[in-house]
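Q: Here's a chain of 338 amino acids. Please give me its 3D structure as tokens.
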Amino acid sequence: MARILVTGYAGFLGSEIVRQLLQAGYQVRGVARSTYPEWESQGIEVIRGDVGDRELVLQASKDCDAVVHTAAKAGVWGRWDDYYRVNTLATSHLLEAAHRNQLRAFVYTSSPSVTFDGQHQSGVNEDVPYPKKWLCFYPQTKALAEMAVLEAARVGKVATCALRPHLIWGSGDPHLFPRVIERARQGRLRRVGSGQNLIDVVHVSNAARAHVQALQRLLEGDSRLNGQSLFITDGQPIECWEWISRILTTAGLAVPKGGLSYRAAYWVGACLEAAYKALGKQSEPPMTRFVAAQLALEHYFSIDRAQQLIGYDPSLDWQSEWKRCEPWLRDLAQRPLR
């Protein structure tokens, strides 16, 4: 069976991908900055190191058949160099390694935010172009990496595809749920706009399944998928404030009643960004332009291409999965604030 190199293998998405790869009979080699004995005990070959280290990934990818690259620096605030090194440069190193070591497939975890230009995205498909400018460094550096991944396929270096899972959720989520709950507890969460804007989310098991399906198709030599980007969602858009309210209510927290217009929130975000940059503050501002836009505007996507090219089926028992999240959400609401 093929050996797959997985970066960020112990992360929320990465660990679910590893679970599904092992269930499918693949051998897995994982790269991460820390060690995780629980994975080593399951037969994963673990390499400790920084995915941004060119020599390390050149060595780590030897004798592998494919790469699933999930490691990234997320967030909406920080230094350009940090985002570029982890998101863009590391991806370039991995693509070089895949080419030099003659790997057969490269699956990249991208983001729908790579196409977000501060306008509504209502059911758009993968033909939507990259914007001319981005509202923060995360989507910009992810977009640069995605461009490199797709270009590698076009010039014949390695068979690739880029998957764009949107707002990954599930029990144990270290990003979306904690962020919403912490901001609410700090009094920093506000409804922006009407709150009725539709957004997409995707359960971690669906997102992982899409990666495994894409990997299998590329390893089989499916030329239709090679060089493609695919939106990955649960296929069930939900109103933004309804989603946030559901998270808070389940966690036992009050839903904030205050709200701002999109124009006001965007202006506040722009002013705060300018002030934080001028002061050299590393902490995230209470509001940014990107956060204002994501809270107020529609961002849901067509998954037709994923269904056609990899057989993606986002079937999910929402009620049972949400039940599994309830203890986790209540626990998050009781943790000390940072």
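Q: Can you summarize the key feature?
A: The first helix runs from residue 12 to 23.
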